[in-house]
Write a sequence for this structure.
């Protein structure tokens, strides 16, 4: 197996069963939704459906990016795509770097990312690292996306993970120019996406100036990809990974930082585990919530039925939270008042 294939396998194993979560939380528990004892709603009439990239989702949910590029990853992606299609939610692909490692699209490796045969109607998000995007022409990126019939391109920003990853990127110059070029030249929308360390208001402003209208904050509090790489590292990188394990902006804090910038889509991922987490994220200003590791674990424990049941439980709990706040729609929930605890309150000032 190649070094890349071995790394992807390690990532899957650690995501399913490894102790690689943040040791600090998302700060979503600092968001107190206000109870409405007179909701004047029927729970079955509450509208969860949400528009995203020209598609109507059954709920404001995304199965967030996890894997790709190997036979095992391809089988997992197919199962996740079937789950997403049946549940009516969006799906993110893992990094497609493996598809274009030789400077052209490798159709054999691309097969592990091709999911339209089982997921014809949902948004499928392509994925490429900012450093790799800077090294690739727009036409090659477009060919990579066309090969999997993607709905958009996530350009992932993961400098903290790369610092610990054996053989990881060390030079991040040119990423802004690449993002601006692709936002301008690609026919598909560009989504700037972190990978577990969150995005600040100052970076949000920079992304807006580059032409980005969609952002996935992927804040701290869920899987620590620094922690994942620390588990795989050797020598001093193990020590450094332990030191920076909890590096980043908590998920709730990142939403709070970026919501005032009014991106077309603000996706909240990073430690989202329940419908109540989703409700809090939406109330803070997110449009969609992404869930990764819990879906993968539900799939591993109970197959596709288990993963679908998990997503349905998240949607049911979101609906309950909406009823209990008197919110008949996602938009109504976003407009409800909330109380913010002191540990989150300190993040309100733009940083």
């Amino acid at each position: 197996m190649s070094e890349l294939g071995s790394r992807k396998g390690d990532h899957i194993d650690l995501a399913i069963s490894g102790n690689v979560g943040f040791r600090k939380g998302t700060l979503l528990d600092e968001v107190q939704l206000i109870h409405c004892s007179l909701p004047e709603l029927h729970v079955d009439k509450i509208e969860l459906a949400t528009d995203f990239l020209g598609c109507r989702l059954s709920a404001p949910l995304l199965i967030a990016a996890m894997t790709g590029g190997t036979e095992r990853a391809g089988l997992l992606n197919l199962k996740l795509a079937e789950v997403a299609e049946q549940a009516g939610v969006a799906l993110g692909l893992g990094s497609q770097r493996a598809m274009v490692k030789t400077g052209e699209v490798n159709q054999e490796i691309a097969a592990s990312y091709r999911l339209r045969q089982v997921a014809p109607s949902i948004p499928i998000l392509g994925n490429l690292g900012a450093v790799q995007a800077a090294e690739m022409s727009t036409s090659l990126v477009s060919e990579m996306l066309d090969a999997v019939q993607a709905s958009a391109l996530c350009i992932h920003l993961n400098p903290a993970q790369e610092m610990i990853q054996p053989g990881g990127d060390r030079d991040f110059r040119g990423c802004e120019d690449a993002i601006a070029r692709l936002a301008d030249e690609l026919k598909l929308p560009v989504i700037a996406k972190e990978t577990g360390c969150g995005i600040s208001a100052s970076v949000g402003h920079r992304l807006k100036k580059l032409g980005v209208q969609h952002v996935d904050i992927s804040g701290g509090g869920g899987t620590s990809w620094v922690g994942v790489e620390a588990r795989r590292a050797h020598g001093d990188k193990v020590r450094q990974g332990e030191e920076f394990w909890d590096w980043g902006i908590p998920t709730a804090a990142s939403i709070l930082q970026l919501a005032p910038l009014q991106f077309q889509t603000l996706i909240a991922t990073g430690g989202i585990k329940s419908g109540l987490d989703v409700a809090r994220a939406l109330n803070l200003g997110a449009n969609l919530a992404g869930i990764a590791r819990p879906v993968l674990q539900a799939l591993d424990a109970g197959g596709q039925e288990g993963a679908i049941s998990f997503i349905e439980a998240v949607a049911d709990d979101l609906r309950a939270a909406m009823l209990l706040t008197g919110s008949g729609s996602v938009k109504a929930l976003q407009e409800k008042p909330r109380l913010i605890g002191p540990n989150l309150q300190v993040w309100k000032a733009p940083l």
In short: DSSP finds 15 helices and twelve strands in the chain. Residues 3-345 form a domain with the TIM Barrel fold (CATH 3.20.20.70).
